[in-house]
Amino acid sequence: MDDTVRRITAEDINPRFNWGRALPALGTMGVDFEERVDYRRLHKYRLSRVKMALDKSELGALLVFDVNNIRYITSTKIGEWERDKLSRWALLSRTGEPILWDFGSAAVHHKLYTPWLAPENCRAGLVGLRGTVDPAFGLMKRHAEEIASILREAGVADMPIGVDIIEPPMMFELEKAGLKVRDGQQVMLEAREIKSADEIALLNRAAAMVDGAYQLIHEQLKPGVRENDIVAEVNKFLYTHGSDDVEAINAISGERCNPHPHNFTDRMIRPGDQAFFDILQSFMGYRTCYYRTFNVGRATPVQHDAYKKAREWLDNAMARIKPGASTADICSQFPTCDVFGFPDEMSAFGLQFAHGLGLALHERPIISRVVSMDHPTEIKEGMVFAIETYCPATDGYSAARIEEEVVVTDKGCRVITLFPAEELPIANRY
Q: Are residues 211 and 277 in the same domain?
């Protein structure tokens, strides 16, 4: 590769945010009269971040089957149906450019429509579709030997190859081909933890879509409506406004609120219910995780109290977010498991919690009493993560759940989830 290309760093192609201005919530169309997301700049930034992380590691190359990592490295995506199939993969060596093995005709499509990838690096491939193609048929062996040959040509075959997720028979074939297989997911997560200006704009746009979804919920949440009715309407709203994947909508109401079941049913909403929702969707691959709690028509004092506690825990934790702080600093503001009725921190995992957001729902940092107090990590400018709290009410069945998404700025954090949540919202007040 040309040395002048290799010297380009992620910082060279990531215009620094002016944190004194509002983050843009841009339209979805490309226009000629203002700068919006520059997708080719986004691709160059992401690829340079991976190359930097790879150079810092012991690895000679990365082999990725995780669809989020494939998209991060190659800026390609062929639909949500592929997410659990292990039907595509990409290879990036220290000395080469991305090579993509694709699902049948998608390889031909990418030769035509992805000029940022070399045409000869867009290849068709098939390893196993999670075992439905028997390893004995030899496809895994063939591709493992092909990958080993590419790495020998690149001069890195003697170095370990990092893999994120893989079918065990494919890993065995890589080892038979003479490659030393190591964990590559940590290298990819390091690359992905600092978001560019374009990534933050996409995350902010995704959050703005959910702002609108919560306005819809606020208007429609009334007795006689079912949890799954709300889920259906929100799915329609999000896809209409440009979502490329509504991953899940948790809708939990009434006696289902405590303990938190993390799903939805056909339960009918009743007067006085406390109800909370989590909307997980993506715009151009960039995800949301965004809880809000409502009461239907009216709220009891204990329901108000639960909400106030959840809000206080959340605000105290967010006040600690700034560059140079540690995940333990933030986690110290979360209540211990016994305070809200759980026997141990593992059972309470995910209730007082924060997690990075990007092309995946869970990126760095992960902030939880399960890991953060003993293994603190640094908060950095440009991280984007969701932070969430949960408080059961003393009536034994109601509960409040609140979540904000934040961008770490040079001095603190900026909240990008803007549907009002300072006080308990009452939908269709009586």
A: yes
Residue 259: which domain range?
A: 197-427
**CATH code at position 365:** 3.90.230.10
Give residue 148's identity as a one-letter amino acid code: A
Residues 235 and 360 in one domain: yes
Verify that 216 and 138 share a domain, yes or no: no
Whole-number Å distance between alpha carbons of 406 and 294: 21
> Same structural domain for residues 126 and 231?
no
The helix (run of H) or strand (run of E) holding residue 183 is strand 181-183
Instruction: Name the residue with tokens 């995800």.
Output: 287
| Secondary structure of residue 270 in the 3-state scheme | coil
Other residues' Cβ atoms within 10 Å of the Cβ of residue 377? 15
Asked whether 349 and 339 are in contact (CB, 8 A), the reply is: no
Confidence band (pLDDT; 50, 70, 90) for 19? confident
| Global pTM value | 0.96
**For residue 125, how many other CB atoms are within 10 A of its CB?**
18
**Residues contacting residue 323 through CB under 8 Å, at least 6 positions apart:** 379, 380, 381, 408, 410, 411
Q: H helices of 221-265, where?
A: 227-240
Among residues 177, 192, 207, the one where a domain terminates is 192
What is the torsional sign of CA 103, 108, 111, 113?
A: negative
The alpha carbon torsion through 231, 236, 242, 248 (nearest 10 deg) reads 20
Upstream peptide bond of 15 is cis (omega within 30 degrees of 0): no
Quote the CA–CA distance of 131 and 135 in Å, as a whole number: 7
CATH number of the domain at 74, please. Answer: 3.40.350.10
Cβ-based burial of 137 (10 A; exposed 0-12, middle 13-18, buried ≥19): exposed
Same structural domain, 267 and 357 = yes
Distance separating alpha carbons of residues 382 and 407, to the nearest angstrom: 6
Buried b (16+ CB within 10 A) or exposed e, 212-247: ebbeebbeebeeebbbebbbebbbebbeebebbbbe
Residues 259 and 117 in one domain: no
**Tens digits of residue pLDDT in 38-63:** 999 999 999 999 999 999 999 999 99
